[in-house]
Amino acid sequence: MNEAFKQDVDKGLSSSPKQLLSKYFYDEVGDALFVKIMNMPEYYLTNAEYEIFTQQAESIINAFEVEGEALELIELGAGDGTKTIELLKVLQHKADFTYIPIDISQNALDLLTERLSKEVPGVKVSPLQGDYFSVLSEIKEHTARKVVLFLGSNIGNMLDHNARRFIQQLTEQLNKGDKLLLGVDLKKDAGIILPAYNDAQGITRAFNLNLLTRINRELGGNFDIDRFEHRPLYNEVLGQAESYIQSTAEQDVYIEATGKTYHFDKDERIHMEISRKYDDNAIKDITADTGLQLKQKFTDSKNYFADYLLAMQ
Predict the structure, then answer these.
(1) How many CB atoms within 10 Å of residue 125?
(2) I want to staple 71 with a disulfide (CB 3.0 to 4.6 A). Which of 97, 134, 247, 272 is the partner?
(3) Are 159 and 285 in the same domain?
(4) Is the dihedral of CA 308, 164, 276, 8 positive or negative?
């Protein structure tokens, strides 16, 4: 049994309001569903960042300023690698580098490694499974220049105070001259944003509810999935999309691993995830006092998404 999973579920369902950590979305089923989400027509984030990488890969790599140097290209939460592959195709002609994808999901790393062997054969790949910071601390002393990729607006899944702490922890594992390419979703109209978290096919719904299925399977829960529904919202004041699972009836759920029963009122929500939207000021705020300096900003043609390149001073 995953002890951390058990403890986090117990803590989250015992809280008021209830919450579950989004990092537990990613079991084998969750990984596959998220790949589908990234390819949904409503999920503009993937296409917008993919456009940046396909149209501006050369400019991005030039901004890395590593031509002729040994380089470690480190990606946090690489997913299926679709965008990064576009960068690797160009980078392999520019630098001697090792691509190091880091992910908590070994399944995701295995699938990515297999794909890379077919689409960019010859590229040196060294996947590492585990927590970002514990893995980064192990490779901090490597002499190669490091460029860290944190793409897909994954930083947006954190509240601002957590994002600041995350960036601070990240920079503690970097050296002077190392760089961070940070992909973020930009603030825009709610009519564009909300459908990305409430697609017509119901894939996002399945992705969120799969966490309840995982609790049933791994922790001996008895969630009746049909008595919960996916409820996305967009908070325009805070500039963030919010995902909830809502109970459709008053009910009790028992989880064998924790030995506890959790009561749900009708319409009570479990907070699952946020997706923060950014502008230049928000980026300056979460990177203040970290030693990072903004070097360049790359945006798609609709100005939906941005990849910010920052360098350690």
Answers:
(1) 16
(2) 97
(3) yes
(4) positive
